[in-house]
Design a protein that fits this description.
By secondary structure, this protein is an alpha/beta fold. The protein has a 7-stranded parallel beta sheet with strand order 3-2-1-4-5-6-11, with helices on both faces. The protein has a two-stranded parallel ribbon with strand order 7-10. Strands 8-13 form a two-stranded parallel sheet. It has 11 helices and 13 strands.
Length: 319
């Protein structure tokens, strides 16, 4: 099958590309390499050879639509995005240009190419805002209440997907992702806390926990997330699915789990709570299991060990 992955050189996108080429799919990657890396694609290149095409292009560029129209993919996986919540607050225009105008360029390419379906990466941590704790883990019918331009753009993106389905017959599925972690995640910039802790613990540097450390997140392993995208190819048309574990893990517990894994028994440093950070978060994945046949397979302990092992190998390669 001929498929497109926008943001395919990124942490999640490249993991998805690996799974696609192992299936024997022909893959076009569109990525501007602002956060993704050619190194993330080495495994896929070794497997796919000429069945993997990489285009260095920003999705905001009109060339994106032409590339897609010419390639004529059956399926589009749209992961390219501006993902920094704080950056979206400081510069909402750039956030909207990337996450909405960029999405429309991709949708127009799919419409022109008569693509069958688009599978869209949304954000379960932002589109719902911070509902009451008794609602956790959140179900898909939870009222939307984004509190950042990033959350608004992801919510609006899902609505664009539905609109293109009704207007043009381009089917769509939206996946609201929990806190994704795993190998290839960049520990710098707007990185997830697992990657940040991994980088610092392996360098024997102190980790910082902002606030009390009792705040919770739903950590889902990147390989499991990539599998959710694959499970959406044939199922879930027109629907939104939460892709998480349904389990809350406190930042304090996460730190202790990771520190134990590398043989460190010192406590993390504490700093003031960062404004705008939600207190608790988890997503109920039962609808995805029912309709997509998907559920997370990797425990936090297994995922943390795999992530630390990858970071350690990167340190050795770079030393």
């Amino acid at each position: 099958m001929r498929v497109l992955v926008t943001g395919g050189a990124g942490f999640i996108g490249s993991t998805l590309v690996d799974q696609l080429v192992k299936r024997g799919d022909q893959v076009l990657i569109i990525d501007n390499f602002s956060s993704g890396s050619e190194k993330n694609l080495e495994e896929a290149k070794n497997i796919a050879n000429e069945d993997l095409v990489i285009e260095n292009c920003d999705i905001r560029n009109p060339e994106t639509t032409k590339l897609i129209a010419d390639y004529q993919p059956s399926i589009i996986f749209h992961l390219a995005a501006q993902v920094d919540v704080r950056a979206s607050v400081e510069d909402p225009l750039t956030d909207a240009e990337t996450n909405l105008l960029g999405l429309i360029r991709v949708l127009e390419g799919g419409r022109t190419a008569k693509t069958r379906k688009i599978i869209f990466a949304s954000s379960g941590g932002t589109i719902y805002g911070e509902p009451e704790a008794k609602q956790l883990p959140l179900k898909e019918e939870t009222q939307w209440n984004p509190s950042s331009p990033y959350g608004i753009s992801k919510l609006a993106g899902g609505l664009y997907i539905k609109t293109y389905s009704s207007l043009h017959g381009l089917k769509g599925t939206t996946l609201a992702l929990a806190n994704v972690y795993g190998p290839r995640q960049d520990p710098h910039g707007e990185a997830g806390v697992v990657a940040i802790f991994a980088g610092k613990l392996l360098n024997r540097e102190p980790c910082t926990i902002y606030g009390s450390g009792t705040q919770t997140r739903d950590f889902v392993y990147v390989e499991d997330v990539a599998s959710a995208f694959l499970a959406s190819i044939e199922n879930g048309d027109g629907k939104l699915f939460n892709i998480g574990t349904g389990t809350e893990t406190s930042i304090q517990h996460l730190y202790k789990e990771m520190a134990l894994a590398v043989g460190i028994d010192s406590e993390a440093e504490n700093a003031a709570e960062r404004p705008g950070e939600i207190e608790r978060s988890s997503l109920n994945p039962s609808l995805a299991e029912k309709i997509l046949g998907w559920k997370p397979q990797t425990s936090l302990r297994e995922g943390v060990h795999s992530t630390l092992k990858w970071f350690e190998s990167e340190r050795e390669d770079n030393s």
